[in-house]
Design a protein that fits this description.
single chain, 13 helices, 13% strand, binds S-adenosyl-L-homocysteine
């Protein structure tokens, strides 16, 4: 199996059959460690011992969608709903800027409040952040919208967009989402984001219900083909108030392995060490960095709402202030010999494009 990892490093691709074989063998003693070691070497060669940090503002938990796995789903009854006003979001951004953040991530459920009239309200927020802090990158993670809205937000100054594909297999997608959502639209949104010029982030939950090695192989092949700038990979974590509540959480070990394989396939990818890795474990994000992740996203949401933005149960950090959360994660990063760097943290190829344009 190590030979397949070496082949991936040399050629940056594997056949579907090879992917299935490699992923199915993840419990082979020493294999995860071997992949992590290769991945870490590549990460350190591209990014040094530096970790980019992004402040995530969870601006609303209202959502029109009803994804079967997500604690913010429309049918969820246990969630106290909130939305931050543009003023509250800008106050968070200011705090973040003062703490050293140079990327602000705005993530939320999907709701007309910010999206109406071509995402007018969010356009105003993005523009205000860009005007006040020209050296800050803005990342959006607000789900599926039409091309006009994506374009308006890009024109207002948004740089990146996170929209996990969740699974690259249509039949699997349909087991995780209601009939009102479609695999085709998810994929079309991702293509549109890239066409517009965003640094685009795809991604998936490892160990989501009904997932097989074939599905993960399809995910790897999709990532190889679509070439996102970022890939968010976290284990599925059940949320008690969803139809998938009784499924077990995804494996952290398999998540580290998939992180490593993504890194080996594409050394320049931006790969976050995701929060879902630390539900009930202490060292998930550290180990993700050691397996090839190079981004961490501390929580920058204001006090008083964090306990209501629960995509899954046992989310860590919800009782910490933004400053405490940043300090905690900085400590974890430094403990393993890395440093958090102040800067936008763009994808390496995008930096080159911007330099050429300047
Ligand atoms: N509405 C936006 C963003 C919010 S959810 C969107 O759809 O893009 C952000 C990500 O959290 C999702 O893409 C999903 O992969 C992840 N997520 C949601 N519920 C989860 C769960 N129960 N376990 C693990 N990850 C989950």
């Amino acid at each position: 199996m190590k030979a397949l990892i070496d082949k991936l490093e040399d050629t940056h691709s594997l056949t579907r059959k090879e992917w299935v074989e490699l992923i199915s063998a993840y419990e082979t003693p020493g294999l995860i460690e071997y992949a992590a070691e290769r991945a870490r070497k590549l990460t350190d060669a591209v990014f040094g011992k530096q970790i980019y940090f992004r402040g995530i503002i969870e601006y609303t938990n209202f959502c029109r969608n009803d994804c079967y796995y997500c604690g913010l789903r429309l049918s969820g009854k246990d969630t106290t709903r909130y939305r931050l006003t543009p003023q509250q979001i800008l106050a968070c951004a200011e705090d973040g800027y003062n703490m050293g953040y140079r990327t602000i991530v705005l993530q939320g459920g999907e709701t007309a409040y910010y999206e109406a009239k071509g995402a007018e309200r969010m356009v105003g927020i993005v523009r205000a952040i860009r005007e006040r802090y020209p050296d800050v990158a803005v990342t959006l993670s607000m789900g599926e919208m039409n091309r006009e809205a994506y374009q308006a937000l890009f024109d207002a100054g948004a740089d990146r967009y996170l929209l996990r594909h969740e699974t690259a297999t249509k039949e699997h997608y349909e087991k995780l989402h209601p009939p009102t959502m479609s695999f085709e639209n998810r994929m079309a949104c991702l293509r549109t984001l890239k066409e517009i010029g965003y640094q685009a982030g795809a991604g998936l939950m490892v160990g989501s219900p009904y997932q097989t090695a074939e599905h993960l192989a399809a995910d790897m092949m999709f990532i190889a083909d679509f070439k996102p700038h970022m890939v968010g990979i976290g284990p599925f974590q059940p949320h008690h108030d969803t139809p998938l509540a009784s499924f077990p959480p995804g494996s952290n070990e398999l998540t580290f392995f998939i992180v490593s394989l993504c890194r080996i396939m594409n050394p320049k990818l931006l790969i976050p060490a995701t929060t879902a890795l630390d539900c009930g474990h202490g060292d998930g994000r550290q180990r993700a960095i050691l397996a090839g992740a190079n981004v961490i996203m501390p929580n920058l949401s204001p006090e008083g709402i964090k306990q209501n933005y629960l995509l899954y149960d046992n989310k860590p950090g919800i009782t910490q202030s933004a400053a405490e959360n940043l300090a905690k994660l900085r400590g974890l990063v430094e403990e393993i010999g890395y440093t958090m760097v102040v800067g936008r943290g763009d994808h390496p190829d995008t930096v080159k494009e911007q330099a050429r344009a300047a």
